[in-house]
Structures are given as C-alpha cells and as structure tokens.
C-alpha cells in the first residue's frame, strides 16, 4: 500500500468525485473513463479530468496492456493495494492542517451519508443488501489491531475474488469499517 504525507495529495483525494473514482478502481481493478462516468453518473469528460488530476499526483496510471487499441485509455490504481496517509507527518507540513481539515470534513459527511442511506426507511429493494451493525468488544490495543487486520483480510479476499469480473449484476458496495474505543473511553 502506498503511503503519502503530501498535503496536496490529500487535498486531491478529499474531493468527493476523486475519492469515489479511487474506490471504484480499488474494487474493479481497472476501468475506462466512460465506465467511471457511467457508474458515477457524470459526463465522460469530467471523469477524464478527475483521472488526469489523480494521475498528476501519481495515484492512478494508465494500463496500456488492458487497452483494446492505442486510443483506448484504461486506468488503474498506481498501487493496487490502495493508498494511505501518514497523518501526523502530513499535518506538520505547510498547508497540512488545512488539507487535513478538508479531508476530515468530507470523510465525516461521507460517513453520515452512508449510515443515513443504509438506515433510510423506504421500500425494500431486493436487488441490493444493506446492513449497519454495531458491536462491542473488550480489547487491548494489540487485539484491536488484530481485529482490524483480520477484517482487512476478509475485505481483501473478497476484492481479489471479484476484481476484474465483468458481471452486470455486480455493483460496488461500500464496506465502512470503524474500530475505536467508545468516545467516552478514549482517554481511559
């Protein structure tokens, strides 16, 4: 997994459309701008613009070996395992606090949106599965890390199983993980 500490890259990733493009590429493996445009319901030129911006920061790259011809542009993550940020190092750089604040604000809004959509009352759609669950475990810091790693392994196993499949019945699901002490226990 590629790790970054550049505030400019965090700002690029904080953009909701770019973040979603990264998620789609992470799930699918590789996609054309037209495929991304269709999934995100945006114009193809807008998808291309955002892909070029992500490429400018080294987050995505062209996959010429997957193209049908020289004009066909297929994109993939520069690091197939995804990206992460060294938050502490990033925040200490010029512009880091501001970039992190934008990223945090967007991440919080996205988390709220996901939970709201999953819990929204309405007619049941049998074509999708939604679930929100909250569990409580008594863990040491090391055990919490082990649980996180095990959950990550399950996600990675499923990603490897479904990545690159051109099945029209498959859609991208957001699997939102949150492992933390209860907020009133963080300082305990």
From TrEMBL:
One family name in Pfam for this protein: HTH_20
User: Per the database record, which ranges form the HTH arsR-type domain?
Assistant: 8-87
Q: What is this protein called?
A: Helix-turn-helix domain-containing protein
Q: Which organism is it from?
A: Nocardioides mangrovi
């Amino acid at each position: 997994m590629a790790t970054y500490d550049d505030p400019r890259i965090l700002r690029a990733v904080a953009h909701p459309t770019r973040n979603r493009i990264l998620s789609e590429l992470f799930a699918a493996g590789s996609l054309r701008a037209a495929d991304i445009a269709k999934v995100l319901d945006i114009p193809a030129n807008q998808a291309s613009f955002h892909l070029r911006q992500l490429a400018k920061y080294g987050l995505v790259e062209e996959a010429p070996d997957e193209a049908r011809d020289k004009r066909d542009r297929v994109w993939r993550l520069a690091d197939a395992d995804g990206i992460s940020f060294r938050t502490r190092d990033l925040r200490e750089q010029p512009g880091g606090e501001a970039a992190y604040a934008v990223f945090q604000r967007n991440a919080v809004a996205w988390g709220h949106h996901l939970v709201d959509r999953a819990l929204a009352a309405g007619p049941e759609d049998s074509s999708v599965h939604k679930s929100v669950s909250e569990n409580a475990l008594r863990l040491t810091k090391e055990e919490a890390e082990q649980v996180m790693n095990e959950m990550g392994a399950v996600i990675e196993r499923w990603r490897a199983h479904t990545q690159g499949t051109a099945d029209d019945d498959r859609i991208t699901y957001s699997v939102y993980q949150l492992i933390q002490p209860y907020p009133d226990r963080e300082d305990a």
